[in-house]
């Protein structure tokens, strides 16, 4: 079901289409007509362009936004290394199937200091690969602090709590069962109006997310472009004293800070294709088989990129005949990182995969339903059945081999040592030799 328990008035705008051109102004006549950078913008503002793609990218892929602000972003003192943030420098490539217990909430950490890298591959410096993070914050960011990642786009999957996000382009309130995408370089701060928060982040070092092509599905289905929401322009005109704001930036997985005398949230108007947005996963229109066989999870893709896909497993009907309905046992050329927002995932019923936990099945690491799920699914009466009621599971799927950090393997103390032994070792042997010998048209013995 779509989220309906709005805790504050909605101040978002629905997009004309996903990643379509959009504009917003907090004061009338802020946006210029014609030239994007007029000699003198209205209200004495400065024109500044934020580019998310190269200047010569094809028109259909070019993502850039013009902002009209009180002071330009360049007006800050030099960046300095920030050593209180510990980057994960060691990445371990392991074939082992991994599953984590729910990650603990941290009552003392703010957004920046709660970011823990669980895994990743590639390099932000070369714009290749991705990073996977867990966040578990207990307090709002201190006043007059802001953050941006120069490394990539943040796809935030909130599992617990409420995020009140103030971005350069406006505000977004994010609740469980909603996702948030904040593009590379966009500044924001995070307040926690409901207390502690927890969730997952996929940082995309290469390119940006798109909606998947629908192909034979047609013009409707999966995530509809009209359901994505973007912020409305809002600005702070307060004058501050010298060096009163601290800007944190994640740069090549290290943290730096710079100080400035003005707020970064001084954008009076903006227009373009490069902006943060949120999406309610309850609005996802699941597609499935209505005859036989269990389709690949690609039919549940919300957002896609050559580096990684974001896939969800929402409440849905299963109606296939003569079919093993949970996901079959498989080995993929893809890596699969799964998380659980709420409820119980229908293919993992043994209790080990819980909300706020996670699993990683890397390239060609065999996996599938656990023994507790396989046995009843093999004998179930194949009537129309709704699965996933009150549940939302998701997957970050990538063709790359995802490494695991020291924090993910050891320091978090959440890896389940008995994952294999409890999930698949208990599977029983059911093989029966045919009577009458091999190669003959005989019946299988009962």
What is the topological layout?
Elements: E1 12-14, E2 22-25, E3 46-51, E4 64-69, E5 80-81, E6 91-92, E7 98-100, H1 111-114, E8 116-123, E9 128-137, E10 145-149, E11 153-160, E12 163-167, E13 170-174, E14 178-182, E15 188-191, E16 197-204, E17 229-231, E18 245-251, E19 254-260, E20 267-272, E21 277-280, E22 301-303, E23 309-313, E24 316-318, E25 335-342, E26 358-361, H2 371-379, E27 385-387, E28 392-398, E29 403-405, H3 406-411, H4 419-423
Parallel strand pairs: 10-18
Antiparallel strand pairs: 1-17, 2-20, 3-4, 4-20, 5-19, 6-29, 7-26, 8-9, 8-29, 9-16, 11-14, 11-16, 12-13, 12-15, 14-21, 18-19, 22-23, 23-28, 24-27, 25-26, 25-28
Write structural notes for this entry.
Helices cover 5% and strands 33% of the residues. With 446 residues, it is mainly β. It has an 8-stranded antiparallel β-sheet with strand order 6-29-8-9-16-11-14-21. The longest helix has 9 residues, at 371-379. Mean pLDDT is 91; it is low at 1-9. The protein has a domain at 283-423: Sandwich (Jelly Rolls), CATH 2.60.120.10. A hairpin with a 4-residue loop joins β8 and β9. InterPro entries: HgmA_C, HgmA_N, Homogentis_dOase, RmlC-like_jellyroll, RmlC_Cupin_sf. Keywords: Dioxygenase, Iron, Metal-binding, Oxidoreductase, Phenylalanine catabolism, Tyrosine catabolism. Fe cation binds at residues 330, 336.
